[in-house]
Amino acid sequence: MALFEDVTRFIDTIPYLVHSNGATEEEIHRLRVAWNMLPLDYEAFLRKYGWLEFGATEVPGLGALVPTHLNVLAQAHDAWNSGISHELLPIYNPYSGWLYCLKYQQSSVSVVVYSFDLGETYGDSFSSWSDWFLWM
To answer: What φ, ψ does residue 13 adopt, rounded to 5°?
Structure first.
């Protein structure tokens, strides 16, 4: 299982990286209230980076100057209002008919793939946000 320190080492090698100075505790609290339990590695990402853009890759989050399309809380509300289960928190949209989501289930969180066509999650999952991020 990857650790957030592995994610940080990787991110620090990315040229042309755009991100905020991190999300505030208030922003993280609002996300936690809206969704429930955030994994510690994702919270650490939000605190340190907020959100990311590098090349064509855009990782939603929170923080100063977060582009509207990368605001994870706004994306979550849009997804929930369109019928996606509230147990899912969309964290990455590759614009291919599916989303990567955090999934809260029985006091644990994993990363799963949600298919718009199937209307459900499918395929492999990742045991942590850090594992997913380093795979991505």
So the answer is: -95, -5
Q: Compute CA distances 42 → 68, 69, 97, 119, whole Å.
A: 19, 19, 24, 25
Closest CA to 58 of 26, 3, 111, 100: 100
> CA 68, CA 133: separation in Å to the nearest integer?
21
pLDDT tens-place string over residues 39-88: 999 999 999 999 999 988 899 999 988 999 999 999 999 999 999 999 99
Token pair, residue 21, equals 């100075």
- Beta-bridged to residue 100, according to DSSP, are 92, 113
- How far is 1 from 37, CA to CA, in rounded Å? 19
Length of the chain: 136
3-class DSSP state of 71: strand
How many other CB atoms are there within 10 angstroms of residue 118's CB atom? 11
User: Which helix H or strand E contains 101, and what residues bound it?
Assistant: strand 98-105
